[in-house]
Amino acid sequence: MNDQLTIAGGGITGLAAAYIAAKAGKKVRLFEGSNQFGGLLNTFPIGGNRLEYFYHHFFTHDAELNWLLKELGLEKEVFFCNTTMGIFRDGKIHDFNTPMDLLKFEPVGWTGKFRFALTSLFLGKFADWRKYEHLSTLDWFYRWAGNSVTEALWKPLLSIKFGPYADKVPLAWMIGRLRQRMNSRKQGNEQLGYLEGSLQRLLDALLNELKAAGVELISNAALKRLLVRGNLLEGIETPAGKVEGGDFLLTIPGLYLPALLRDHHQDLAQRFEKIEYFGAICVVLELNRPLSSIYWLNVADEGFPFGGIIEQTNLLPATAYNGSHIAYLSRYFAKEEAIAAMKNEEVAELMLASLPKIYSDFEKSWLKKVHVFRTNTAATVCDRQFSQKIPPCQTPIQRLFIANMAHVYPDERSANNAIRVAAQACKVMGIDSSFVPSKASLSGQIGFNELDLLNS
Q1: Which domains does the chain possess?
Q2: How far is CA 190 from its chain centroid?
Q3: What is the dihedral of CA 307, 88, 58, 47, to 10 degrees?
Q4: Three-state DSSP class for 292?
Q5: Which residues make Cβ contacts (< 8 Å) with residue 107, sequence separation at least 6?
Q6: In 3D, which of 299, 329, 419 has the Cα closest to residue 54?
Q7: CB count in 10 Å sphere of residue 225
Q8: Residues 221-270 pLDDT 10s
Q9: Cα(168)–Cα(135) distance, rounded to whole angstroms?
Q10: Which residues in the chain come in under a pLDDT of 50?
């Protein structure tokens, strides 16, 4: 095993890989293209506290994340609590937490409610995702959950997240999603967790530990070029200069990889070209009063510029933000959608104009501040047989390894699943990661064995 590891990409996958590798005795240097490490975990000041640009919470079964928090001495700063969910459908907010809420859900009849419960339980608890990759989620729901349930619930919810790709989402992804949610339920209530002081606490502690372990942290150093001789990656070039020797792990989003790979391995470049990404916009509202008592509201009626309303202060109390009430208005988007080209101010106005359709008493006088954040790499677009698109972590180019959001499939992206992918990447590189626990995550199963390389 070579003692030197160079990582490109300072999001949670790259940071976790650096931590695991350094803990195992490797000499590590980590390059980040922007001016700050953390990627989608980054935060901003609000209400005398800090908050993530894009909403985050933990699940009770997040073994990898809980391990890292304990490693960093933060395990006592995590709390879990019961949270509430709702669905806005047919112009009305419906509670959607308990079996009784399902029975009261007016848009679906009794037969549909029974089929909804049965199919959800099957997918979340018993189905093997490997057997259902070839099936469309919507097609399966139409057949087994029925038209009324699919039209009232599943089709709108898939459209919220996947937009024009909603009918291509494989059932394997839905199995991963439902398993994630159901495994965090206790006595019928969903328990979600959060870190006091925001994930900035995790980032700060992790960066401090990396520095103490001798890891070189270089920001403003986007990957410019791969230095390949024959079939061997000898080094990389960044604005900070060239570095050579050892193994190289790229954790940057796949859409940036084809330009780097095209001159060295056309087939690998083309595989990454086939993996598309969704963007996401979060308009964060700082309010003088709450919108509702619901933590997570899915907006299932058509015509809204956001698909979810996540009230952070129904997870944490408003006292954590000096009395301010915090809500995210969330929207995923495909690159060709009009909202992708809109200015932040336009997006905020568009979303705020729709709030009174849900909360009839809402007034702009409730607002203290409005913040808008966006990313073009929020999630990969998963379609049928998506596992066949995912390139191997160990690439055909010697000493080049790649692990990024695509490797989270069939699970949902999360900090926990990024740590699992990082641990698997270290294992492939011959770095001991056996001390990282694994429990319920489905991530890191595709692209991390020798057969994946042989079939690439």
Answers
A1: 4-39+199-274+390-454 (3.50.50.60)
A2: 19
A3: 80
A4: coil
A5: 89, 90, 94, 148, 152, 153
A6: 329
A7: 13
A8: 999 999 999 999 999 999 999 999 999 999 999 999 999 999 999 999 99
A9: 9
A10: 1, 451, 453-456
The Cα–Cα gap between 314 and 299 comes to: 17
- Burial readout 38-53 (b: 16 or more C-beta within 10 A, e: otherwise): bbbbbbeebbebbbbb
- Whole-number Å distance between alpha carbons of 122 and 24: 40
Cα(68)–Cα(146) distance, integer angstroms: 42
Beta bridge partners of 233: 228
End-to-end C-alpha distance for the chain, whole angstroms: 24
Question: Measured between alpha carbons, how far is 46 from 174 in angstroms, rounded to an integer?
Answer: 34
Alpha-carbon separation of residue 352 from 85, 221, 283 (angstroms): 21, 37, 9
The span from the CA of 414 to the CA of 391, in Å, is 20
CA distance 283 to 55: 11
What angle, rounded to 10 degrees, do the helices at 63-71 and 12-23 form? 60
CB 221 within 8 A of CB 240: yes
Residue carrying the six token digits 């490490």: 37
Judge if pTM exceeds 0.90.
yes
State which H helix or E strand residue 230 sits in: none
- Token reading at 229: 């001789």
| Sole residue written with tokens 């240097």 | 29
Dihedral (CA of 333, 334, 339, 342) sign: positive
Alpha-carbon gap, residue 257 to 142, rounded angstroms: 37
Torsion, Cα of 411, 251, 30, 281 (10° steps):
-70
The sheet carrying 277-287 orders its strands as 92-95, 85-89, 296-299, 308-311, 325-333, 277-287, 367-380
Q: Where are the beta strands (DSSP E) in 289-366?
A: 296-299, 308-311, 325-333
- Measured distance CA(59)–CA(413) in Å, rounded: 12
CA geometry: angle 333, 337, 338, nearest 5 deg:
115
The phi, psi pair for 231, rounded to 5°, reads: -120, 25
- CB neighbours of residue 24 within 10 Å: 18
410: preceding bond cis by omega (within 30 degrees): yes
Residue closest to 157 by CA, chosen among 296, 20, 285, 343: 296
List pLDDT tens digits, range 319-340: 999 999 999 999 999 888 999 9
Closest CA to 371 of 18, 44, 152: 44
